[in-house]
Amino acid sequence: MSVFRLFSFSNNSVKSCRNLLCSSFLEQRALISGKTIKQLGIPTPPKRPCTPYIRFFQNIRPKIKENNPDLNPKELVKAIAQEWSKYDPEKKKLLQKEFLSELEVYLKNFEAYKQSITPEQQNLINSTKEKEKQAKEQARIHSKKESLGKPKKPPTGFLKFLMERKSQKDESLKYTDWVRQIAREWEMMPEERKDQYKEEAKIALDKYKSDMLAWEESMIRQGHIDVVRNKELLESSSTKKQSSKTTA
């Protein structure tokens, strides 16, 4: 649900506050998430007041759900919206009046909150938000790569040996202790046998590199540039595009 859907009101007096509330909402989001605030020990911002519709939604949702247990989430939201359209206009006005009163207090408190944030806290907020943004982007790229069939990197010789031994793991051992045990076995393994694992891993890695090259070339052709990490391929693709434009 969008910010502006949350802040959609039914009369002009409440609509006049829409820009103020949307602005403070976006500013609050720009400051920091509630979860991160707790982690950093920074004072929490004041809580935004519920709009008339959201307050109605929260109050009536349990009753609608109880009377209609088979409704899925989308159908439940639609049913509540229908109830809102039939709701007594006078009761809506009461909800709007409560909201306007709470909004006035909220805007004052939020302005005071912004002023209370020190430069050091703001710098911490900014750096943390940037890290959160990067982490979300990395997660998005990772998920997209998987959905587009990115080849999986094969295990090293040691990891292949470890995976083979996993079925024989003593359940009474901690995983870290078991890995140390396998590492000792690997170190004591005859070089000839160890070389077999390494050779198999090398063959698998060479195939992986070939598959990755073909996959990234395919991604470039399909326009999924954001999942390609091969700089030479990207530069080559960019050069070809420039050449085709010049020729045209």
Automatic annotation (TrEMBL):
Which SUPFAM superfamilies does its entry note? HMG-box
Domain HMG box as annotated: residue spans = 46-114, 151-216
User: Which domain of life does the protein's organism represent?
Assistant: Eukaryota
* GO cellular component terms attached to this protein's record: nucleus
PROSITE patterns from the xrefs?
Answer: HMG_BOX_2
Its recorded name reads: HMG box domain-containing protein
Q: Which InterPro entries match?
A: ChromReg_NeuronalGeneExpr, HMG_box_dom, HMG_box_dom_sf
Q: Where is the composition biased (Basic and acidic residues)?
A: 128-149
The organism is: Trichomalopsis sarcophagae
